[in-house]
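for ur thesis appendix - Ribosomal protein L11 methyltransferase. copy paste whatever u need, i formatted it the way the template wanted (i think)
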Amino acid sequence: MKWKKFTLTTTTEAVDLISCAFDEIGIEGIEIEDNIPLTEKETKGMFIDILPELPPDEGIAKVSFYLDDDADVPGMLEKVNEALEELKMFTDLGACTIEASETEDKDWINNWKQYFKPFTVDDILIKPTWETIPEEHKDKLLIQIDPGTAFGTGMHETTQLCIRQLRKYTGSDTKVLDVGTGSGILGITALKLGAKEVFGTDLDENAITAVGENLEANGIPAGLFTVLQGNIIDDKEVQDAAGYEYYDVAVANILADVIIMLQKEIPVHIKKGGIFITSGIINMKEEVVKEAFAANSAFEIIEVTYQGEWVSITARKK
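the 3d part is after this line
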């Protein structure tokens, strides 16, 4: 099926009114493009580390909507134009021009899978659940992951940095705290490396389902990996559920600003001599994270590793 795409050029101040008007006439979803910078509150809530550089905001916005071939396109466009004429009495619609184009119907939910192929981290093979094991990697430690649409595949440099550190510090009796567990790839890697148990936390409730499915894909009993939705930084229930001075290793592949907050909380959850593995740190944030660890008397940095533009900092609890 082909979809007809219609893009309205208007003003940023008119977008909310246009959105409401389009909803009333039966357009169920719109796409908005503008150059308005995100606020500090928005970036904090989205845990964005690096923002793209935008052109200057000139008050112009593009509002796109899609109609399929079976729709009454002329009739809908007539309603759109009537709605816009009415809105002109209340606000400045700017150019108020509409461009038409066509786009093909695609399986956007699953289209990303074509880019997720088996890959190795040293002697560990990580592959999507729908791929077969490459013949040349059959002797490697196998981890199967289906990240779904909510989490990363593990191919990112920061995940690989954490996996290499887990390889160094995980033994048969290791208890692991996995903060920001996502698909569970790091916790599952730890279990595959012989860890005794894993406790994971994540802000996204989808992590609970994702970890459960990936445990099954790897033949790991569900009881070895507990996942709780919540924020260990400031949620007492999550903190209590995790337990205190219990873990041999904590791992967090998140973002530099979150790690800076985490390094204050993690010491109470790991044993003396316990290891805290971190990544998700872009190189320009390396020094500020190091400074945060240096200011924390509970930790000493024991290793810093790099891959591409990314950094992993590993610390030991004194």
